[in-house]
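Minutes, project check-in
Item: structure for the 480-residue chain
Input as provided by the requester:
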Amino acid sequence: MTDPSIADPPTPYSPRPVAKPAPVAARPAAARTKLLLEGPIFATLLRLAAPNILNLIAFVAVITFDGFFLGKIGTDALAGASLAFPWIMLVLQTTNSGMGAGVSSAVARALGAGHRERADELTFHAFLLALALGATFSTVMPLAAPFLFGWMGGRDKMLIDALLYANAAFGGAVCITVLNLLGNAVRGTGNMSLHAGVLVACVIAHIALAPALMFGYGPLPAMGPAGAGWGLVIPFGVGSLVMIGYLRSSRSIVRLNFVGATPRWAMFADILKVGVPGLINTAITNLSVVVLTGIAGQFGPEAAIGYAMGSRLEYIMQPIAFGIGTAIVAMVGTNWGARQYDRARRIAWTGAITIALVCGTLGLIVAVRPGLWLGLFSDDAEVARLGTSYLRIVGPVYVCFGLGLGLFFVCQGYGRGFAAMTANAVRLFVSAGAGLAAVYWFKLGVTGLFIAIAAGFCVYAALTALAVLRVSPPSDSPAA
């Protein structure tokens, strides 16, 4: 596994000659940047990560309340939404922690190097990328949805309700992409609270608006499942306007400027070299669950459900890792850009080990007491037996899963996402390949599959650690 960007040549920034910029004294004092460069490492990580817990609460609230209200319409509406929701979550995740991390990393590195005008340009290019991604989702997904949902089992009224929900949500996808990419530009400055607060406000507005649109209220007609989709994109649209307004104000460290700004490939490339691997990594993580569920399903529906219930804990670990990981991206990126390489490395390992310990602790708890988790979902004895087997085999190595997740964010902070993305792909191939061999060659049954999944997590941690250890400062920098 090689990463061609491990030792980047120096690329001093030469801004385009445009209208005379405002003097530095007129810009807000970058106290947050100073905190990232000089603050105590662990305390600063926790301080920056704390607001991101709101993101976890926001996503859980969307999942919970949408299911509750759609269930009131009927079983077909709830089942149809279950077909569309994973794809809507994919839009949210790829722009929040995938491409969004590319924006955050690029802005943080520019500010750390003292190139505030470059950070402004990157913010403008993030806005253009958001428009392009939104247009892509709004065009491709409504065309593909009938085939995707049909392949997933959608039929008749269930398929109609799924399309009503999806077409509304994907039609306004630009509201999601703009909010998340511009929010990550703000995160790159060290301000984690604004984006988290806007997201929570959007979710609260969604919870209030969606049922009114679904069932009708006053002059509002009953829109059925489509109301849930519009109830999501309308608040996100307002949130996007709030984010644009903030980035256009004097309070923001970076500015979203339109006058005199022109697209430049170098700016897009700085975002995409981290954002594209991050986006693909998100897709790989979701694909791995689909593939492994399919392999487990060869032993019957109880085995598939048992694996799914056990592995659902991994969906909880990912937002936890994201909460700390966004702080890692900002701190590592800023210090790397400022050529504080030793401090960047200390931040990297402190953050990654923190995530590993949190995930490892959760894994040990469910390995010892699997009923605490599995009892939330099913009381079927066979599902409980298989889920217990999964957690007792895989739970103790969740520390490796957490380390891999943490080091992925470290790579994004360095501006090298390709190697970490490759490590996650290798994890999928190891888990699926070794799992198939254990099942069909060694005849080890579902236990062999679970052992293969655990091995995949260990490989993931080892490869991401190797990727981080291989990162070196630019050749013209002082000794690290």
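Outcome recorded: Residues 1-12, 17-29 have pLDDT under 50 and may be disordered.
No further action items on this chain.
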